[in-house]
Amino acid sequence: MTEMSGAPSSGTGVPGRIGIGLQLDAIHMKILEVLRENGRISVAALAERVGISRASAYTRFEALRADGVIKRFTADVDHVRAGLGITALVFVTVRQQMWKQFRAQLAQMPEVEYCAITTGQHDAMIQIRMADVAAIHALVTERLASIPAVKATETVFILDEVLKRPYVLPSDRRPAATARTRRPPADPPAQANVPLGKMRFVVAAEGRADMHREP
Amino acid sequence: MTEMSGAPSSGTGVPGRIGIGLQLDAIHMKILEVLRENGRISVAALAERVGISRASAYTRFEALRADGVIKRFTADVDHVRAGLGITALVFVTVRQQMWKQFRAQLAQMPEVEYCAITTGQHDAMIQIRMADVAAIHALVTERLASIPAVKATETVFILDEVLKRPYVLPSDRRPAATARTRRPPADPPAQANVPLGKMRFVVAAEGRADMHREP
DNA sequence: GTTGAAATTAGTACGAA
DNA sequence: TTCGTACTAATTTCAAC
After folding, report:
1. Chain B 32..71 CB hits on strand C (< 7 A)
2. Is residue B207 predicted with pLDDT exceeding 70?
3. Closest nucleotide to residue A53 (Cα to C1')?
4. Which of A39, A104, A159, B136 pairs as cysteine with B73 (C-beta 3.0–4.6 A)?
5. Residue B211 has pLDDT above 50, yes or no
6. Residue B203 confidence (pLDDT)
7. Does residue B204 lie within 7 Å of nucleic acid chain C, judged by its CB?
8. Residue A120: other Cβ atoms inside 10 A
9. How high is the pLDDT of residue A77?
């Protein structure tokens, strides 16, 4: 369920599929913008908000769906109200050449909302939601740690989710600045003023070349 | 847009709202289960799949929406297809007593898909999506690092998103095990066998008590 | 890509169980 | 509360332009 394969975000369910598919124009983007905020809007209303005819809206809507640009429509649920009050991030170090097993085990854990393979100190980050702290602890110690592919874990709790956007679009630009904070248009790029010491990119750990290979 | 306030996941837009609201029963959960997989299903079809009448489905559907259990419906878009091929996680150390400013600045950055305040070595984790690595670099060095509230950042790239579920429900239990991997029902809890050394819970950093206070 | 009309479906309002 | 039905409004489909 909801598993992704191979390269980042390439899980369309059609393994052999390659190519650009749809070339998205400004109207496609506008459609996506509306749909991310109201996934249940009628196509008629969508057409009006985007400024095209209903028939075109149906055509483009279908094309976006068929081409996999829109993967699904979903309800955004309040986890706390639904009974899962605690969220944690678990950073996992995966044993070399056991990635396939790790993926398979994760697929068996419905409590895992998100899993990404990352560069840096750890190999993967997973997000889990549970009813309470004890349940998080139990999951990490009893189920995650018992996976042979898992070499080590590091858990942090989420104290507050400040921002959660359904997804980001290329058309998302910085919102129009207010008069108080607007910069002059001719402002030079800030690159020269960047305090470089503030930033640190973390390189990949050793033993990652086998990431998509099998044991 | 899409900002959350105060306590974890409590952003309902109704600041004074306190209390349990709806008491969710099994049918509510079933409704949520259907809706997370198909957010555009008609209420009639929903009623059929859940096994209640059309009228009841409307009532419960509206109640879930009005009570904030369902926060919104949204389209799940393929970021790569939409033109944002690179995803990164940025771990941010926030200067003490500047949380409010940090939040305000984040709200101005539409490229940020997710931001959570965490325990552990860093104070916050944000997820950003950009067209390429250079754009990530530019965002982190030019915009994030120039926020006074940001003391330091650490960036890792996401190489693959293995799993991404719309959300997790309490009713999600471990999927029915296959014959090959099923355990006997009387299996003792694995607690005694846990290799505790594998796990490490990370405590909060110093200076976090002021998290919700202002400068 | 657009408009307009037919067919279908959705949303609402009742009384009854 | 939930169900069943009937009524009205809206949406989707399909045609021709």
Report:
1. 42-45, 54-55, 58
2. no
3. C2
4. A39
5. no
6. 65
7. no
8. 18
9. 94
B10: left (phi over 0), alpha (psi -120 to 50) or beta: alpha
Structure tokens at A160: 């507050």
Over chain A (215 residues), what is each successive 10-residue block's mean pLDDT? 46 43 90 96 96 96 96 95 95 95 94 97 97 96 96 97 90 61 47 49 56 43
Residue B69 to residue A68: CA distance in whole angstroms? 28
- Comparing CB atoms, the residue among B89, B167, B211 nearest residue A77 is B167
DSSP annotation of A207 reads S
The candidate with the shortest Cα–Cα distance to A114, out of B6, B91, B113, is B113
Residue whose pair of structure tokens reads 């004890």 in the numeric block: A134
**What is residue A137's DSSP assignment?**
H
Spell out where chain A has E strands.
70-77, 86-94, 112-118, 124-130, 150-164
Element (H, E) at B46: helix B43-50
CB atoms within 10 A of CB B202: 16
User: How far is Cα B127 from Cα B170, in angstroms, rounded to an integer?
Assistant: 25
